[in-house]
């Protein structure tokens, strides 16, 4: 026997099929009968959607009452006794108990509203939706609480016995981890339940648009919780890796994630041998390590991704990573060279794109080795900038006036201006040396500069004489262009 809400084939459908197949009625009579059948179908569909909507609202209430009872069990039989009996003294458990009490009050308000006014579900969720973000506090500590309880069960027999005894009680009859995860899953569950109510709500219903707005708020809270859980998982991965590293380096940083890690073979510079090394690919850095994570890792080099480039060699089985003056020729014994190549290339591309849109750390980052590894950035606190020393190759280029071309004007009164322009390079230098001459210092450097000043004055006089001689001998009607002759200062 089928339910009246979901019959296999309705009576009106069978009648319509018979009327269409057999020419039993006139055209006018057949149209009247089919119209009446359509009205019955519309009424039936409306009744069916209304029943399904009520059923979805009732499911929200039923599951919320069950969830409320689970919160009571978690606080009454586990968290409170652990703190009262001092079985485990940790501040995070105190915070956990306070979060459970707060979320219990929010859930209680939802149950009360659904019992008293189930048809006004949009208004109820609209009032409580801002409080759903409180679940993010619990979700952020969830992984740490789970690890804390698991470690203490392994190391503390009395604590393990207490948990086992509480789990088998008739009032509980469930595992502690299953109770802890219900709080993380509750907001996504709200999202599914409200979406089901909206699916069975007609477009012209008064609560259709308010339900849409509530669903948007719930989805925002769910995304926020999921992002915090994912962020906490990534942080935990970095912390686990941090425990394996013996070098003084802090991997944990907001926004930093672990992309890939594993062993690669590094080819020696001579190319006749290869050494097994461990590489850690982060979203902003590549770590070159020695050792294994099972024992210990020693970070030998830190490579910023924005300065790295990757080149494939020998049909993509061998690849080269270059980071300024550091070069590594690598391959994988496990045959996953292509995976490493793709992961590193994608990480470099994504990191450079992020740097183009966000103001990240200074682009002056360079590969770090040995004693400089402690400069590896681990937070977003800006450091005091230091003036970089000029490298040996970065030399100052003296002004070479022999490459300067001057143009003689048609008017004779422009000659003085032309000579002033020619004297500009000398004036700046003569003023500098004049200050040196006026000083009372008698060191060797000052005497050397004074000698250079005298030599430069003599060359300047020769240049002026040569220019005037060239001006007299040149034919002004054939060419108006005159090249200035000024020897530059030699180092």
From TrEMBL:
InterPro entries: DBL_dom_sf, DH_dom, FYVE_RhoGEF_PH, PH-like_dom_sf, PH_domain. Residues 473-482 have a biased composition (Polar residues). Residues 257-349 form the PH domain. SUPFAM superfamilies: DBL homology domain (DH-domain), PH domain-like. One of its GO terms (molecular function) is guanyl-nucleotide exchange factor activity. Residues 362-393, 470-491 are annotated as: Disordered. Residues 52-228 form the DH domain. It comes from the Eukaryota. One of its GO terms (cellular component) is cytoplasm. This is Uncharacterized protein.
